[in-house]
Predict the structure.
Amino acid sequence: MSGGSLQDAAKALAAALAGRLDLREADPKGAAIDQAMRQRMLSAYAQELSELTPDASSRWLLDRMATIESRLIAVQAAQWHAQSLPAAAAGGAGGIVAEDVVLPRRVLVTCDESMTSEGFYAVERNRAGKPFLWLGPEPHASIFIPKLVAPVEVRLHLQSAFVPDVLDEMRLSLDGGEWTQVSVEKPEGRVVLVAAPPPGAARRAASMKLEIDAIRTESPASRGGSDTRRLGIALEEIELISIDRASNL
């Protein structure tokens, strides 16, 4: 992408966000503040890019992405240090590396517009206003999730399942690692798919790629409905928990 294209994109996004802002009617207020900050940053990006050649613009973009990832890791470190450190780390026991202290050990990801994913339809909301995503039209989807201390237990909290007979056949893969079949739990009548897929070699600085194989999708239209989409599972939340290595020894 050329410097001009990046600059035009930044200007267009800034203008679009500015047109949507109305701080007086903000609900919640945090959303309007977030929009205002993004509009300000995009305007600054456009100004910076206007002075760069296409090659320099590409380097600027890569440097900006690296800066964001490094600062995300720093924020995670600050959050983790605000809590108590693992007992083994505090005691100076061997086997504890820097990553064990910097990275979080539990994250709850809400499946809304902020989630980076492929293989899902647009965000919907249930009667209570809680967001969820239908997997489809293909049975394979992927999501970028925050990086945790490995190994990690993945818990997919479902809003619904259109093809429930294949739930116990579903598989998960983490960072290109081997596929791991899920187990199906039903706490308080809800459906949660659980697996601990071993991470593969496709490592990233501040995120992991979670892949979901839902086995099969089907359309409500094939059962007499009006919805022609091919649906698998409706995903509401993704819970990620670092597994204590000691418990696996």
Observations:
- Confidence is low (pLDDT under 50) at residues 20-27, 81-98.
- The first helix runs from residue 3 to 20.
- The first strand starts at residue 106 and ends at 110.
